[in-house]
Design goal:
This is Alpha-L-rhamnosidase. The protein is an alpha+beta fold. Helix content is about 30%, strand content about 25%.
């Protein structure tokens, strides 16, 4: 098909087939329209509000028969707070009716919120912000028409009629849900419904962040943060399998970070880029794509090695960062950087061997030898203990007994909690890790979460209200009253992909699925049920979906059933 329009005396033409060849011009996402599930609050004169809970068609009509009416009498304002039932990414569509006098647009205010209280907040109140995505609008809506507004992460929307002595007729108010329409190939089901819900919530959190690129947050942090990608990509591999949003994001991070820069200005984030490429190659086996990274990888490895002293101590510049809760603990950050430097260079040596870059392999291996000469103290930092255990600088059992398991989920974090769980698994403390998952990530679900948050602290729990209700008098607003660093109050993202670690962890350690050869050509099945009676699930591979089921027998032994695609060698441990 050809499209032609006139520019002066010239006809400018192009074909839709030409456009389709340019992926930058084609949105891989879909838009789905969802109606509200409840009206949570109202003020002023509101009639027939139940109309908004009915499925709509997105079309105004002349009957004006089924209409929700907001009426302002004098200077008093009428408003609604609507709930779409779950966290969404997208915007809002408003379909209007006929009011008198006709043809006059109405002025309204629209506020999006990840919590009910955020949708009720004034701009700048308790950190309420329009950063990264506008969530607080003043717009005009047409008489007998339709308008679409917004692109953010939200569950709740408040609508205020701003005009004095006026009516607003609403036929429909629908969420525009924008997402990648991809199947959940991975699954997890056990006799513990709390764990099942946590696995699913982590998967959904990452799914919402698989937008144009793989973001960290759909309201705030709609950016490619490479370190944050690591737990997200682990979840993508466990749930969705191959998706081009991952290499697209890894390539963007590389292309916007010419060396000697650090990705996102953070040395560890460039290290995570190396580790991510190894993990992606192991799952998907795309050697040609991996080889494309060789020039950048080789120079990045030299840059990292140059920051390792003769005594084996890391001397990283840039932003010295692990995660926010550990950022003020300089000793913990140093220990974590030492471990991350070792992890990334050990991984770089493996990548050098795979792609035939013996120089990079040799440079990395030499630095690894120096790094192992110096072991910093982990003290009581769970972040430092986890990383040091994962690279064998500290025995995992020691890290678990002295630091990680102390206080249960106390001092866990949403991002580095994944590595704390990994280190606990390495120490064999599967039951303790399951308890932490239930207590820490499960507590967010208890508070009404449908996605996992940028940060969470068990100390916030006493006297806290739920995020899906207006905060009762005498209760703390867990969204508006808490948060720290860059995420104070309502600026805090309640859908953050880096918090999805339990999804990947449950697949790897409880289902027991471990990829041991590139492209999933070989998989080891080694279940660790902890206190569970049974677990079953699926895992996406390039050759099809793998199925496993583990059932604890009366004698305590575990019976395992495996159905694997052709071309995959399965080893049972």
């Amino acid at each position: 098909m050809m499209l032609c329009w006139m520019a002066g005396s010239h006809c400018i033409a192009f074909s839709y087939s030409q456009i389709a060849k340019d992926s930058a011009l084609r949105d891989e996402r879909v838009r789905e329209y969802l109606h509200p599930v409840r009206i949570l609050w109202q003020q002023g004169t509101v009639k027939n509000k139940e109309q908004l809970l009915k499925p709509g068609i997105g079309q105004a009509d002349l009957t004006n028969a089924s209409i929700c009416v907001l009426k302002n009498e004098g200077s008093a304002k009428s408003s609604l707070l609507i709930d779409f039932g779950t966290e969404l990414h997208g915007g809002l569509e408003i379909v209007t009716g006929m009011w008198s006098p006709g043809n006059t647009p109405r002025n309204i205010r629209v506020r999006f919120g990840e919590s009910a209280s955020e949708a009720m907040a004034e701009l700048h109140e308790k950190g309420a912000t329009n950063d990264h995505a506008i969530r607080d609008f003043r717009i005009q809506v047409p008489w007998l028409g339709k308008i679409q507004v917004g692109e953010s992460g939200f569950r709740f929307v408040r609508i205020d009629l701003l005009d004095s002595a006026a009516e607003l007729h609403l036929k429909e108010v629908r969420a525009i849900f924008t997402y990648r329409d991809i199947p959940y190939l991975g699954s997890f089901k056990s006799n513990d419904e709390r764990l099942n819900g946590i696995w699913q919530t982590g998967a959904y959190t990452v799914h919402l962040n698989m937008q144009d690129y793989l973001w960290d947050g759909i309201k705030r942090d709609r950016l490619v943060w490479v370190g944050d990608l690591h737990p997200e990509v682990a979840t993508v591999n466990s749930v969705f399998g191959y998706n081009n949003v991952v290499p697209k994001s890894l390539d963007l991070a590389r292309d916007v970070t010419p060396l000697p820069g650090w990705m996102s200005g953070i040395s560890t984030y460039s290290m995570w880029w190396i580790i991510l490429h190894y993990d992606w190659y192991m799952h998907h086996g795309d050697l040609a794509y991996l080889k494309q990274q060789q020039p950048y990888l080789a120079e990045l490895v030299k840059q990292i090695v140059n920051k390792v002293g003769p005594d084996g101590k890391e001397r990283m510049d840039g932003n010295r960062f692990l995660d926010w809760p550990s950022s003020k603990d300089t000793a913990a950050v140093h220990a974590g950087l030492q471990a991350m430097t070792l992890w990334s260079l050990t991984t770089a040596a493996k990548l050098g061997e795979v792609i035939g870059d013996t120089e990079t392999q040799s440079i990395a291996e030499e630095a690894v030898g120096r790094l192992r000469q110096y072991v910093p103290e982990m003290k009581q930092s769970k972040q430092a203990a986890a990383l040091l255990a994962l690279v064998d600088m500290v025995p995992a059992a020691v890290a678990n007994d002295q630091v990680l398991s102390v206080g249960g989920a106390k001092n866990f974090s949403t991002f580095y909690g994944y590595y704390m769980l990994q280190a606990m698994a390495k120490a064999g403390n599967y039951t303790g890790a399951l308890d932490v998952i239930r207590d820490y990530w499960g507590a967010m679900l208890d508070l009404g979460a449908t996605t996992f948050w940028e940060d969470f602290n068990l100390e916030w729990l006493p006297n806290a209200g739920r995020i899906d209700e207006l905060v009762p008098e005498g209760k703390k607003d867990i969204h508006g009253d808490y948060g720290d660093y860059c995420y104070v109050g309502f600026r805090h993202s309640l859908c953050h992909g880096w918090a999805s670690g339990p999804t990947a962890w449950l697949t790897e350690h409880v289902l027991g699925i471990k990829v041991t050869a590139p492209g999933c050509r070989e998989i080891v099945i080694a279940p660790n049920l902890g206190d569970l009676d049974y677990v079953e699930g699926t895992f996406p591979t390039p050759r099809g979906v793998l199925y496993v089921k583990h059932t604890r027998q009366p004698d305590g032994k575990v019976k395992t059933v495996v159905r694997s695609p052709k071309g995959i060698k399965v080893k049972r441990m």
